[in-house]
User: What shape does this take?
Amino acid sequence: MAASYSITRVIALWDRLNSSFWFVPTVMVIVAVALSFLFIEVDILRGVDLTDDPSAFYTFGPEGARSILSVIATSMITVASLIFSITMLSLQLASSQFGPRVLDNFMRDRSNQIVLGTFIATFLYCLFVLRSVRGMEGSSFVPHLAVGFGVVLAAASVAVLIYFIHHIATSIRIETLLAKLAYEGCCAVDRLFDERPQQGAGHQMPDGFDADSRQIAADFGGYVQNVGVDALMRIATEHDLVLRIDAPPGQFVTKGVCVITAYPQDRVSDKIEEQLCGAVVIGRDRTPHQDLEFAIHRIVELAQRSLSPGFNDPTTALYCIDRLGEVLGRVDGRSIPSTMQLDRHCQVRLLTETVVLEDVACRAFAAIARYGITDADVVRQLSETLVRVEASFPLAARHALADFREQVLSASRSQSLHGFDRKILSDVQDTDRTES
Assistant: This one.
């Protein structure tokens, strides 16, 4: 397997494993089982016997050790079942209230994974220690250190249970969810928009690019989740190629569809094609890692659901608009990435699609305005947020946002509004005139 293929795919696989609901509990279980063997071996080497020394941390006879380990194991598996049920109930609530696109955030919640892993790990630890307790009173082997550590794990599990009750009540709040979605959106902006001046302006594509190029097809269908730009740049530089990314992150492709075009085709061997194909990660769903539009869409979807007649919660829509402004305002001071990326010798190596900021912003705000155009508070919040976002956008994108903002205000004025709602919109227009 080629290096670039393995690095890109392994990184994507590790990210999926690290964010899955079962990976952290599995690691914790393995560590707990290993600790049970370790502490038993330490007790064997120490040759600890039953003692009445009051200064000892925790000592038991065989029956006492069996009893306390059995009680801990039974209670841990019972609480673990309860934790799992509460988690599933929270997922069901999140799916119905916030939409299925945000379920991944709850599944990747590290606290929930650690809580579940703590109880399962304690349960299995007690089972493995329990098997080593042998004999009757007066002639026995009791791993006092191992049993004592089991008591410590039980006490820690109680503390974790109290934390879980607090955490699960906090995590299902809309403010907490929006903060997480906005953070992921800001991270996507940081990855896509460079703080350094853009390069590649003034360069042109090679002559005959389309005629003398080789198309790299997707090996299976799905959404493009990650494109290894660094790996593609390295391959293009080593083999003197010019690559064009035809399927950017977030695009749905079917098997056999071209994802990368390589020029010239006579330099692209089957091995290089395998490397190029491996630099593109395709999965079942979209992810916000490199897909800014999807990161924004999840916030927009929450606003749309809150404005639907079934929910009728415009306050949540106001929170969503604020967070949307936070993500788009992150662009402030950053340059729009060029469609052409150069190597250190200023040779064009990679052609990509650039993000059209004004289109992304207008589509996002329009999706909210479409449902909240009759709500004066929503329109006012949209107007104020658009003003802030417009100030952070590059000059070329500001005019589109200003025109869109005027269209929203004009559309709201044409609605049959109450007198006090018209007063709110009139105040917004008066503020515009004062600022201008």
Observations:
- Residues 3-172 form one domain.
- The first helix runs from residue 3 to 19.
- Confidence is low (pLDDT under 50) at residues 1-5, 50-56.
